[in-house]
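seq as requested:
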Amino acid sequence: MTAILKAANLHKSYRMGQARLDVLKGLDLTVARGEFVAIVGASGSGKSTLLHILGGLDKPDTGHVEFNGRRVDRFGPGQLNRFRNRKVGFVFQFYHLLDELNVLDNVLLPAMAAVGTLGWLARRPSARKRAAELLEQVGLAERIGHKPYQLSGGERQRVAIARALMNDPELLLADEPTGNLDSKTGNGILEILENLNRRGQTIVMVTHDDRMAAKANRTIRLADGRIV
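struct tokens:
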């Protein structure tokens, strides 16, 4: 299978006062197009740091990431913004929805960010149609006008997934997508991800839950900044 994502010799550390915390220590990773990969490990093993680097939200100290054969570290600021907006969809543990916007408008945000004001006026009707279809796909057609604070945790995560899919990304990155949910609700979120993968969506998911990871095509375990 064709590789969509490659990470080579990733090192990442942070300063904690006078001390240096080494988070990633020479990590290599390849993800094939259409794969569903789970990254598991204890808290502090480097899972979220790795995910942020893969999605261009953070930079490694050394090493690099390739997306479709192109090195992400060589992207200019505009290219990097387009990569994060159009090629990658992000799903976070804490949803990051805007309470002042309704469900539909939250899902529309990536499409609005992708074009200027004039471009948005032309694109708005088709974008609203796609957003509504995505919300129906995740079972929230009846919640389209609600505000996030009117939804349950599972419903908010479904909105976040729809938002991540808005620009039809090639890669979906999910950071502990069930971490704030009870097991039954978490299973519902995982079922959505499995269905997306069956339709060809490439997914890399960070989780601390081995039961969730078992649903992926492949599990990668991190410990002390390395794959074990």
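Helices lie at 47-54, 77-87, 103-114, 117-137, 153-165, 183-198, 210-213.
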